[in-house]
Amino acid sequence: MSQFIIEAVYFLTALLFIYGLKRMASPVTARSGILIAGIGMVLAVLAAFLYGFDVREAAQEHLTMNVALVLIALGLGLGWAWYSGKKVAMTDMPQMVALYNGMGGGAAAAIAATELFSGNAQSHGVVVSILAVLGGLIGAVALSGSLIAWAKLDGRMNGVIRLPAQQLINAVLFLGSLALGAYIVVTGLNGVISFPMIALFFILALVLGVLLTTPIGGADMPVVISLYNAFTGLAVAFEGFVLQNPAMIIAGTVVGSAGTLLTLMMAKAMNRPVSNVIFSQFGGSDDDGGEIEGSMKSADASDAAIAMYYASKVIIVPGYGLAVAQAQHKLYEFVKLLQKQGVDVAFAIHPVAGRMPGHMNVLLAEAGVPYDIIHDLEDINEDFPQADVAIVLGANDVVNPAARHRKSSPIYGMPILNVDMARQAYVVKRGQGKGYSGVENELFFAENTSMVYGDAQKVMVQMIEAVKSLG
Amino acid sequence: MDPVTTITGFVALYIFMLAAFTGYEIIGRVPAILHTPLMSGSNFVHGIVVVGAMWALLNAGSTLEQVIGFFGVLLGAGNAAGGYVVTERMLEMFKPSDKRQGTADKE
């Protein structure tokens, strides 16, 4: 009976997950979507307690202890995650998603480990064994890889660490763990369960996750997080098959494919094949943009503000620098002053602005900017020639015209926002440094560009004052 | 484990295929502004792994399995709860302009 209830609840859960995700796909219904999916999760967890009525023979004597352990683990995991999720700042969201994702991968790897160590997976034949091993491998890579991504985004680990012959080491590790996995499957079918080999398999997989991620730079982290999200989904689906748990199979596969598509979309936005990101070829070209003709001109924040005040169309290009300076609230205050004056203001968001796709949208939403004045690259790029003023705040490579014409540039081919086509461009920037890619930005030297130096927050305050003083 | 549903061979492949298309369809038509919440939302959905970890821990027959199972449930619960909270917080902030509420659906 308990088994029937569990199955029925899982069916409902799968339905609620898919319906919830579907509703999350539109800004209008998104909030109810996560609530619906959340209900599905709570029901599934409650139903999973019914497993206690029908446990393996070997576990009978430990049942009381195991139930207590489940309650403690659930309480600790839920309490910690709820607290950390509530207090994390919106700018730090990407690393939290990476961290939670790594935990999911770790849970999938843990299931694989218990099923392999206990010999349960091996006793169910070759297919189940292979899926248990593969799910364990992918889950462990997602766990350690996500932790590195989290450490990098959280500023706990800086720079790019490359070993000599990194590709070779990674290939050896990958093939080594596959070989060990094959060994575990083959010997397991003959009833042999080798504890050291299984342990070594998981250790290799964890090391592989670390070494895959350490050479990847911060700017590529969105793609990496998305990829590991898909990995975890796949690992969950595989372990779901091992446990004959349809809710895990469906939820894991949905996330696996959705995550893969999202990863491809992101990589496309950066004009780099995913393989390029993973095998970290960024900066392979030494071209730093060369000598650019012309010189940078600087302008006062108040001059830029007044130019926008009397413009009829202004396009704002925010980048991660804006969020770091926590200037998005001041920016929106300024935008409201412009709108009151009748200026048509639009936000242009590059697909990889921020640290995750759509991260900048979240940061602007936090400041109260309505989502219908925020536009994607494809929607707004043709509007730049009609804009009187385009202002770039804390973005660099995504507005570099070199991406359109300079073939030797490492960013050549990346879609950019055509800020240089606006009648007047202002770039708010802290100093004269180069962008993440280490390339000199041609936009800054253009005839119609003026640089406004300063911290974005302070610049916005000056702009607001300048506009207010006009009355 | 003797489940009511036994998912083997081609039935499993059918489930994989249909679920994969479902995931593809859901993400494929989403505006970029929702990519972060949706990534976070899908991150929450694979938190369902916690129920598998619960099964593994409840069926643990040795100390080693108990330890690993404990971490499995701990991590899975963290994935589910954390994923829910951050997704909910992000989606809460998305609001349309007051004056153009009607056109919001087209975004």
Q: Summarize this, please?
A:
Chain A is α/β, with parallel strands linked by helices. Chain A is built from 17 helices and six strands.
Notes on the structure:
Chain B: This is proton-translocating NAD(P)(+) transhydrogenase. Chain B: Its EC number is 7.1.1.1. Chain A is an alpha/beta fold and 471 residues long. Helix content of chain A is 58%, strand content 7%. A six-stranded parallel β-sheet of chain A has the order 3-2-1-4-5-6. In chain A, helix 5 (126-153) packs antiparallel against helix 6 (166-189). The radius of gyration of chain A is 26 Å and the shape is elongated. The N and C termini of chain A lie far apart (74 Å). Mean pLDDT of chain A is 87; it is low at 282-286. By secondary structure, chain B is mainly alpha-helical. Chain B has a domain at 33-93. Chain B has helices at 9-28, 35-45, 49-58, 63-92. In chain B, helix 2 (35-45) packs antiparallel against helix 4. The radius of gyration of chain B is 19 Å and the shape is flat. At the A-B interface, helix 1, helix 2, helix 3, helix 4 and helix 8 of A face helix 1, helix 2, helix 3 and helix 4 of B.
